[in-house]
Amino acid sequence: MNNFILYTLTIFLLLFSYYKNKKKTKMALVKAWKSFENILPEFLGVIMLVGVLLAILNPRVISSFIGNNSGWVGVVIAAIVGSITLIPGFVAFPTAAMILQNGAGIMQIAAFVSSLMMVGVVTLPIEIKYFNKKMAILRNVFGFIFTFIVALIIGKVLNQI
Amino acid sequence: MKQIIQRYRFFIGTTIIVGVITLINHDIGLKSFANAGNSIKEMILILPAVFILLGLLDVWVPREIMIKYMGEGSGIKGIVLSFLLGSAAAGPLYGAFPVAAVFMKKGVKFINVLIFIGAWSTTKIPMLLFEISALGSDFALTRLLINVPGIIIIAYIISLLTIQEEVGEIYKKAENL
Predict the structure, then answer these.
(1) What sections of the protein cross the membrane (chain A) (predicted)?
(2) Could you give the CA distance from residue A52 to residue A45 in angstroms, rounded to a whole number?
(3) Cβ separation of A31 and B162 shorter than 8 Å?
(4) N or C: which end of chain B has fewer CB within 10 A?
């Protein structure tokens, strides 16, 4: 559905651009291809890494680490597991729900979901290429620390409801 | 040829590692390749559109307009716009980086670039619906309420810790990407 909107928009704009100015449109396509080709090696490498990680870390394995009684140790493990892996949201949330049903606590789930989205260790090579080492590491470290704040607040709020 | 191997050494390396894993443990190895295949499928589905949109943005939208709305002096307007653009996005976080590069090329303020990436990573609107249906609205909305200030605070801290010259270098690099 998302992709459908994305492509409808892209094709519409592309045709409009072509109608307005052929030369500029060609330039846009050349630029698009160049920047894609430029980052492709990093993308492919990261995709292989993510493939292995997802093969090893399935919901059953993860929930065995972060059960309801695992406390802060469980939160730390959840944050670390979430930081390494990179899963698209539409897989991540059902996975998180499954882990929750398998007995993980709400704080651990909050840490897992939050770090999953904000912190990406495997995508660091891409981030470094676009920014630099320092900034990429800073962003991920702060995202990691922030994960614990999120876990704490969600734990407090949801356990009171 | 040598240049291609040099550029793709990370990919070649990881592929060899997964190959070795497959020899040791068939199950995990084959699953890894299947996962990678799925990701590549996802990549092929989303990235061409993202990059074409970026190319069009680069060619058609003048620098002055981007600066006016999201550059130095854009204030709250720039912050809100960065948030909305990041939240409206589709696709995994690595899709945000090329967009950020074009933003920098067009003179978008560093803090706003950071806020955009933060928003793309966690407050995507389509994902919020997934989150509500999987984990409940209390969970999803609480997280959203913490994330909005969190993303802005993190962006400010990072930009405070980054000196002007470094920002300049990152922006210069973006010109060539």
Answers:
(1) 38-57, 69-93, 105-124, 136-158
(2) 11
(3) no
(4) N
Task: Provide the CB-side half-sphere exposure for B36 (13 A, CA).
Answer: 22
N-to-C CA span, chain B:
22
Determine the Cα–Cα distance for residues A79 and A58; give it in Å rounded to an integer: 15
Render pLDDT for A15-58 as a digit per residue (tens, 0 to 9).
999 999 999 999 999 999 998 988 889 889 888 888 888 888 87
Which pLDDT value is given to residue A124? 92
Is residue B41 domain-shared with residue B69, that is, in the same domain?
no
Does residue B30 share a domain with residue B98? no
- Spatial separation of the C-alpha atoms in residues B127 and B121, rounded to whole Å: 10
**Residue B136: how many other CB atoms lie within 10 Å:** 16
Strand partners, A67: A104
Number of domains in chain B: 2
DSSP string, B82-141: HHHHHHT--S-GGGHHHHHHHHHHTT--HHHHHHHHHHHHH--HHHHHHHHHHH-HHHHH
**Would you say residue B56 lies in a domain?**
no
For residue B39, give its domain range: 1-45
CB contact under 8 A, B56 and A125: no
Check whether A2 has a pLDDT greater than 80. no
Q: What does the pLDDT average to over A110-133?
A: 92
Smallest CA–CA distance, residue A64 to chain B, in Å, is 18
Q: How far does B65 lie from chain A, in Å, by closest CA?
A: 18
**Would B52 be classed as within a structural domain?**
no
Mean pLDDT, range B130-148, rounded to an integer: 93
